Every structure is written in C-alpha cells, then in structure tokens.
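Practice problem: predict the structure.
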Amino acid sequence: MNNEKLLTKNTEAIVISDTPLELPSYSLKTYNLYRCDKLIKKTASGKALPAAKCGDAKILLSSMASSLGLSVSENEINAFSDGENGLYRWDDGGICAIARIAFVGKEYARINTVYTSPEKRGHGYAGALVSALSELLIGNGLIPTVLADEDNPISNKMYLSLGFTPDGKIYEYTKNDTPKKECAIFNLRK
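Answer:
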C-alpha cells in the first residue's frame, strides 16, 4: 500500500491514500474535499454569531437531521447546541443558517453542519456564514476545509464561489456486507 494510513475508531475505518484504491461496488456516498487557501469573501444582510444556547439553532439542527433522514434524539440536539462546540448561526432578524467549526488541527480546520432553513434559502446566508468562519480560521493561521456531498450541486458551487478548491474525494462504503463503515480519502495534491 503506497503512502496509506488506516485510522480506526469504534466501528469506523478511514483509509487515507495518495492513489485510488479499488473500491467495492456498493459505495454508499462520495464527498468532495475542498480547502480554502484564498478566501473570496461573501456578505449578506445580518451577521455571524455563536449559536450556543440559541433555541432556534435547535430547531434548525432538528430540521437538518430530518431532511437528511437522520434519527437524532432531543438530548443529542440539546447537547450539540448548548455547549461550546463551534456552532455558529447567521442572524438576520432571526436565525437563518448554521455552520460549525468541527475540527481544528495544527494546519487545517474543518467546517461542517452547514444548513439554511428552507424558507431562508437563496439569500446567501450560508455562504456569508462559511465566509465569516473561514475568515476567522485564516486569521488564526489555519486552512479551512469542507466536505460536500458530490450529489449536491448547490453546496459544491457555493464552496467554489468562496475560493475553496478541490483537494480530494472521500468514499463512504460498507465492506464485506458488514455494518462497519469505511471511508477512503484520496488526496489530489502530491
């Protein structure tokens, strides 16, 4: 295996490789990995604020989980939105969008949980929020990264419009018909 690392946690495994591996034919999902070396700042009316202890953030998290077909308990939603977990909201006379700084490493930070309330879409709120969080991360010497479902053209287009560039793909799949999930991450940069 050429330059590969296998990372495991509970029932999940992540394979990081410089060269694509042969994947099983039952791939579940493909994500595009993006990084932002030069931000194209986006604005919208309103402002970015921390979402901790914001009741409306809980509503948006529940809506997001429901739209993705996820079963999430009220306790999980409360724990996610009440703590110091990097969750932010875009507020324009009320909460419009949410995003989260989910991981901060030595060089990179990942933004995820990007979601706009269906009735607030089309106003640039998610783009402005991701832009504001990216600006914060860049100001702290970090390179922002995001993952986008390959089948979601709206999020992929938004990240490109903010200056994010493709940096790899992540394939999530089951192996040997077991419930164990594996993700293969293929970096495009050498």
